[in-house]
């Protein structure tokens, strides 16, 4: 089924514009009331880390501690081709520089001008939210649902985190929505571009390619499978290029733990709640377990859908993404409350889109459970905005 009329596309466009407007309003409010009008706070730069001297004039907002991933993608956007030595200011240069699409797009949009790069980086995130919502809306309409269901993209945890901390995961989630739409429409060229871009956004984007290739092989469409295998080529070429100019992946620690201590197979290691009052600590602990339940449910639901006879490309991709989450459950710490939420976001989105298509509403439960913990992390910002609006 193809959308041939203009009106449905206009509805999807309107939904996408509304989603971006909501995001910009939230960011403007939190920057105004919580960060003293300093938009660089959205990069979440920590005061433990050095800043490239070339960016000293930006008056970058500093948080106590090590900050978050957005600070590194910010530096990469100023030096996407590894010519200025900014890689030494990254925590894991080789790992970060594999995820080049968002920083490179920001640099291109800014014309390589340092003064415009920061604004361009926000623009790329907004564009990602626009496209993710637009593609989700069109997918919902294909399923006979209202275009307003595209706003589901705002509930994807990666989108929430990216709005707050300018990370690349919202772009991968958007491309996942594009994958679902174009796979269902059978538009090969657009699908090819989407999955190739996903692999350049984050290495887990390769799982979308793997899922679709597996789908083609099962259907004995070997020529198509071979064609889509080549969609990984740009990411592989970039991998070799960036590896030649970087070093120091994460050979000693992963997620803050010595690598030899990872293989203890203890499920779900949560962070410490000692700094919180008793009631808040209990609530956050409960939300952590709900998030864990959501991740496990997502993996089980992906396996359940794959067992059905009418498997779609989306379900093959969901299976590949679920295969990623199984070792993550056992090996990765949840000291950062956004870790599981970000990694699971493409899977959560695919399951929610499938829930729309199949009228299988329980399929959206994993997204809801993971979102609760993600949203709770924004509590202090909500309070800051509330105080500002109330007391001026």
Describe this structure in words.
The chain has 392 residues and is mainly α. It has one domain. The protein is 63% helix and 3% strand. The chain has 16 helices and six strands. The protein has helices at 6-34, 70-78, 93-97, 101-109, 114-142, 157-165, 169-185, 188-201, 206-218, 222-229, 233-245, 278-306, 313-331, 339-358, 365-376, 379-391, and strands at 45-46, 62-63, 253-254, 257-258, 269-270, 333-334. The strands form three sheets. The chain has a two-stranded parallel sheet. Helix 6 packs antiparallel against helix 7, helix 8 (188-201) packs antiparallel against helix 9 (206-218) and helix 12 crosses helix 14 (339-358). Residues 1-5 and 250-266 have low confidence and may be disordered.
């Amino acid at each position: 089924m193809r959308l041939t009329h203009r009106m449905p596309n206009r509805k999807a466009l309107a939904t996408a514009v509304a989603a971006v407007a909501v995001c910009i309003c939230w960011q403007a409010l939190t920057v105004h009331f919580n960060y003293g009008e300093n938009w660089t706070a959205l990069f979440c730069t920590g005061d433990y880390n050095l800043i490239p001297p070339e960016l000293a004039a930006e008056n970058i907002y500093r948080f106590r501690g090590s900050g978050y991933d957005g600070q590194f993608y910010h530096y990469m956007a100023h030096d996407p081709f590894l010519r200025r030595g900014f890689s030494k200011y990254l925590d894991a240069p080789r790992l970060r520089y594999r995820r080049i699409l968002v920083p490179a797009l920001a640099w291109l949009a800014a014309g390589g001008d340092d003064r415009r790069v920061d604004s361009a980086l926000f623009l790329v995130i907004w564009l990602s939210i626009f496209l993710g919502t637009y593609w989700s809306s069109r997918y919902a309409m294909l399923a006979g649902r209202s275009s307003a269901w595209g706003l589901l993209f705002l509930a994807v945890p990666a989108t929430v985190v990216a709005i707050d901390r300018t990370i690349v995961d919202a772009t991968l989630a958007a491309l996942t929505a594009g994958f679902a739409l174009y796979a269902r429409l059978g538009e090969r060229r657009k699908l090819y571009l989407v999955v190739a871009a996903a692999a350049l956004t984050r290495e887990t984007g390769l799982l979308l390619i793997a899922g679709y290739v597996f789908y083609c092989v099962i259907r004995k469409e070997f020529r198509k499978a071979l064609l889509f295998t080549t969609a990984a080529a740009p990411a592989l070429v970039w991998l070799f290029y960036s590896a030649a100019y970087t070093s120091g992946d994460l050979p000693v620690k992963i997620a803050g733990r010595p690598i030899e201590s990872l293989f203890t197979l203890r499920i779900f290691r949560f962070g410490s709640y000692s700094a919180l009052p008793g009631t808040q600590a209990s609530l956050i602990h409960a939300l952590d377990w709900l998030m864990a339940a959501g991740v496990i449910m997502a993996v089980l639901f992906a396996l359940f859908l794959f067992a059905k006879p009418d498997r779609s490309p989306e379900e093959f991709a969901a299976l590949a993404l679920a295969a990623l989450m199984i070792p993550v459950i056992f090996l990765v710490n949840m000291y950062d409350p956004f870790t599981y939420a970000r990694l699971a976001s493409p899977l959560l989105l695919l399951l929610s889109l499938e829930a729309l298509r199949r009228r299988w509403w329980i399929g959206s439960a994993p997204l809801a459970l993971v979102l609760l913990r993600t949203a709770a992390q924004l509590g202090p910002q909500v309070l800051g905005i509330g105080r500002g609006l109330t007391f001026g």
